[in-house]
Amino acid sequence: MIWNYKELFIRGIWVTLALTLVGYIGGIMLGLLIGLGKLSKKKWIYYPSKYYVDFFRGTPLLVQILLIHLAVIPTIFGQSLGYFVSGATALMLNCAAYNAEIIRAGIQSIDKGQMEAARSLGMPHKLAMRHIILPQALRRMIPPFGNELIALLKDSSLVTVIAANDLLYAGKIVAGAYNRFWEPYITVAVLYLFLTFLFTRVIAYTEKRFSNSYVPRQRRRMFTFGRPTGGSS
């Protein structure tokens, strides 16, 4: 049963990965701007950022997907641009709200003395934020960023409500064709589990790589005729 629709499942994997990565990368970039906006002392920057986060964190992602696909994009462009544009946009906007809070909390966790020391040396605020505060905060942001990536991967299955050819859509097609539900949906669950496992391994390596205790592995010295090259006899 599953083998007969293997191409549909393979395409569903690629669509799921594409939606997740596009939504996540866009969510990080937009979330950085919104997170910095929530730290701004200017009200015309702070309040729009705050209301953005409140709206996208306080409403269901499913409603956001339907609203963007059926109302927002057709109103702006005059027609629908397809499930991928709508789905990726909804995932990006939703992810940006959560990433903004991660970034805001990460920056605020850095001791204020870091910024004061940088400013006392004559460094502008933007330069100090980019070279002093953000690199330190990034180490603390990696674990929650990883959790958000895993959550977004699973939440991407909601895009199937607008006929996206993702993994869950493949399972629904097989279930409808054979009127059997155990095999297709367990297959979908296993494939999501496999993707989650891969992402978890990448996140674990990234956390280790950027941890304070990380020590780079020394390169092995090349040996020639039993002696290290460049060494004395």
Describe this structure in words.
The protein is an all-alpha fold and 233 residues long. The N and C termini lie far apart (68 Å). It is globular, with a radius of gyration of 23 Å. A two-stranded antiparallel sheet has the order 1-2. The chain has a single domain (3-212), classed as Orthogonal Bundle (MetI-like fold), CATH 1.10.3720.10. Helices cover 74% and strands 2% of the residues.
Number of helices: 8
The fold-level CATH name is MetI-like fold
Low-confidence stretches: 219-226
Proportion of beta-strand residues: under 5%
The helix fraction, in percent, is over 70%
Instruction: Return the structural class.
Output: mainly alpha
CATH-defined superfamily = MetI-like
CATH class: Mainly Alpha
Task: Return the CATH architecture.
Answer: Orthogonal Bundle
The major beta sheet can be summarized as: 2 strands, antiparallel
Distance between the termini: 68 Å
H-E order: HHHHHHHHEE
Query: Any idea what the shape is?
Result: globular
Q: Please, what is the average pLDDT?
A: 86
Strand order of the largest sheet: 1-2
Q: Please indicate the count of domains.
A: 1
Keywords: Amino-acid transport, Cell membrane, Membrane, Transmembrane, Transmembrane helix, Transport
GO molecular function, one term: transmembrane transporter activity
Family: Belongs to the binding-protein-dependent transport system permease family. HisMQ subfamily.
Subcellular location: Cell membrane
Task: Give descriptors for this structure.
74% helix, 233 residues, MetI-like fold, mainly alpha
